[in-house]
Model the fold of this input.
Amino acid sequence: MMVTANNTMDKEDFQLGSFFPYKVRVFGTAVSTAVSSVYRERYGLSVSEWRTMAILGRNQALSASEIVERSSMDKVNVSRAVQALRKKEFLRRDIDGEDRRKSVLRLTEKGLAVFNDVIPLVRDVEAALTENLSAEEQAVLLKLMEKVQKNAEGLIGEMSAEAANGA
Amino acid sequence: MMVTANNTMDKEDFQLGSFFPYKVRVFGTAVSTAVSSVYRERYGLSVSEWRTMAILGRNQALSASEIVERSSMDKVNVSRAVQALRKKEFLRRDIDGEDRRKSVLRLTEKGLAVFNDVIPLVRDVEAALTENLSAEEQAVLLKLMEKVQKNAEGLIGEMSAEAANGA
DNA sequence: GACATATAGTTGCAATTGATACTATCAGGA
DNA sequence: TCCTGATAGTATCAATTGCAACTATATGTC
Done:
């Protein structure tokens, strides 16, 4: 492992700029801004709204909780995105006949038109983000991000477990 | 509800889960949450406050705009973090004798104690995040993130340039 | 059928963040 | 000196997000 010394010895030398989580955050913010500008500027879509539309896509009818499962958003987030999209008339909500707690969400014609318009744009951005990376580098990047992400999720789990015990 | 029911246009199929910027965001959120929980739960520090403290560190006296330069935060963010840290008595603000617009910020004793306490904890998290990556993998990950980040920053620049031209 | 429990989704409140505009101070001429 | 423009930092308002409490349906047990 490349970490220079043991963790108690180099307090003096702490540099935010070379702190891994800081770099991740700056990286993530840049990527996120580049993509979200596209759908924000063009259609005033927030990230949650975009994700909701992206998951529904063409010909999909899903309940809010199915969207939650596929989007790494929580239900509050989805609920609000749905409201906003209904207001814009990009999305229609019906009630499930078999379980009246459930909603049946799908894009409207108008929403679908936006979706069709936005997809190629965000794909272009996606391509531009990785244009100078070989296919192999892209694969490696994704694999390493996943590994780190799993570690992070493990840590988060541990912490909330401790918090639950602690009290 | 089958996607496959009507998929004459499968080429057009868009899967959020395999969209690169989406993955980056999920990755970033996980990493960020893992680290920020440490200083949030222990000292109620926000990300901006933590960054500000991390940059000041030991024996550093900086102005707010010097913190801006080193933190990828904007000045509003820094200004608010400074206020919050003063209220917690983690940070002291004086006025620069030579340029009375400038502040001279440094950690108090109390702030320094917190800093000394937090640093090993966040370093542990940093180490845990990458524990199953070889030194080489870590270096590759950082290098690839930087490349993508540069691309993203380029795109953001183009967009705001266009926006300025546009209308 | 009635009660306890779980699930789907919404609402309200508080903390964070971002964009814009504002105040105070400085620096460089005419 | 006075004017202009830059710089340092603050204040204001709107959008986003997270947490917890709430309503409504459904399910399982007796």
